[in-house]
Design goal:
This protein has about 325 residues and is α+β, with helices and mostly antiparallel strands. About 25% of the residues lie in helices and about 30% in strands. A hairpin with a 3-residue loop joins strand 6 and strand 7. The site of flavin-adenine dinucleotide (FAD) has 33 residues, from strand 3, strand 8, strand 12 and strand 13.
Length: about 325
């Protein structure tokens, strides 16, 4: 375990926000976490931080930040059809993708190149190109600070929904995920429900492989999204708003070109990026913060943006979308 006091978080969040925390604790093992839990609970507040790619620090953090560095990825159960893989929270998400490619395990390939650590993936039920991680999660294990003990959540108990779970909602923020168990297929099967991915794959490959899908997803993402090492950002800043079928039909009468997808329960999901673009925000810059010119859903830090600059920009966007479409945008990122 490594502990630093008055730690700068600038390199621990992909927005590149320059704030400090009182204590930064890197935890290497479950045993270390159990031993250290009393100390953690003595602090007025604590926050679990992975790669910081879905976290916007709004001010200095006067508490303890726990950064899981527990590593390891292994197959723990095997049959001819499927395997169970156990991945530790501190592994880079892309290490797990590489493990799957190497071992020919199907299911997670569309989630290639999502920044961050394995332990954060269940928190907002990461998703991309028609796949959500919940479809492959068997269970999640970790340390429950309220009960001061290790425990497990089955897939159903995780309460997964669109970019949400019990770990993101306020119900279980005091649960540190140490390991995620995935059920992955040994049988070749791909999800090509996302048009841009399906088209590129069919143009290039008659018999796509796992690596081909993963490489193509990476290439499409690289062409659309800014590299946070160059231009600070947290990916999608807002969730795609889900509205009722009736509300959507009325909206389409006035704005027939809106981008709409089917959502659970007969509802409709609107493209937040398209709504923002229609309000004229794509590519606009306000001070050191701006809207990425190639993808309006991504807010970027052009240099030393303060959290307030980013939040003010977000506020202006929310207000314009509300006035123009009567739709309320909700932030996808975690504000701390
Ligand atoms: C360029 C870019 C592209 C992105 N694309 C996508 C995308 O396609 N799809 C998508 O869903 N997301 C996307 N994201 C968002 C982000 O990468 C994911 O949400 C990722 O899973 C966050 O991982 P992290 O480790 O960086 O999380 P952090 O920001 O460190 O943490 C996120 C949340 O998880 C909690 N948390 C972290 N670790 C643990 C743990 N071990 N136990 C319990 N709680 C924990 C934190 O407290 C926080 O609430 C993108 C971000 C960027 C910068």
């Amino acid at each position: 375990m490594k502990i630093t006091e008055n730690h700068s978080l600038k390199n621990n969040n992909t927005f590149g926000i320059d704030v400090q925390c009182s204590t930064f604790a890197c935890i290497d093992s479950v045993e270390e976490l159990e031993d250290f839990s009393e100390n953690i609970l003595k602090n007025e507040k604590f926050y679990i931080l992975g790669g910081g790619s879905n976290t916007l620090f709004t001010k200095n953090f006067g508490g303890i930040i726990i950064h899981p560095e527990i590593t390891g990825i292994e197959i723990v159960e095997e049959s001819s059809e499927s395997v169970v893989v156990c991945a530790a929270a501190g592994e880079e998400w892309d290490n797990l993708i590489n493990f799957c490619i190497k071992n020919e395990l199907y299911g997670l390939e569309n989630l290639t190149a999502i920044p961050g650590l394995v332990g954060s993936a269940p928190v907002q039920n990461i998703g991309a190109y028609g796949v959500e991680v919940k479809d492959c999660i068997l269970k999640v294990s970790g340390f429950d600070f309220s009960k001061k003990q290790l425990s497990e959540f089955s897939n159903a108990e995780c309460g997964f929904s669109y970019r949400n779970s019990v770990f993101k909602a306020n119900t279980k923020r005091d649960f540190l995920i140490t390991h995620v168990f995935f059920r992955l297929s040994r049988k070749k099967r791909f999800n090509l429900s996302y048009n841009a991915l399906a088209k590129t794959i069919s143009d290039r490959y008659s018999e796509p492989t796992l690596k081909a899908i993963s490489d193509t997803v990476r290439e499409i993402r690289d062409s659309k999204l800014p590299d946070y090492r160059i231009l600070g950002n947290c990916g999608s800043f807002f969730k795609n708003p889900v509205v009722s079928d009736g509300f959507c039909a009325k909206l389409l009468e006035k704005h027939p070109d809106l981008v709409v997808f089917d959502a659970d329960g007969g509802n409709k999901k609107l493209s937040a990026g398209h709504l923002i673009e229609k309000c004229g925000w794509k590519g606009r810059r306000v001070g050191n913060a701006g809207v990425y010119p190639k993808q309006a859903l991504v807010l970027v830090n052009y240099g030393n943006a303060s959290p307030d600059e980013i939040l003010n920009l977000a506020g202006m966007i929310v207000s314009d979308v509300r006035n123009e479409f009567g739709v309320e945008l909700e932030m996808e990122i975690n504000r701390v």
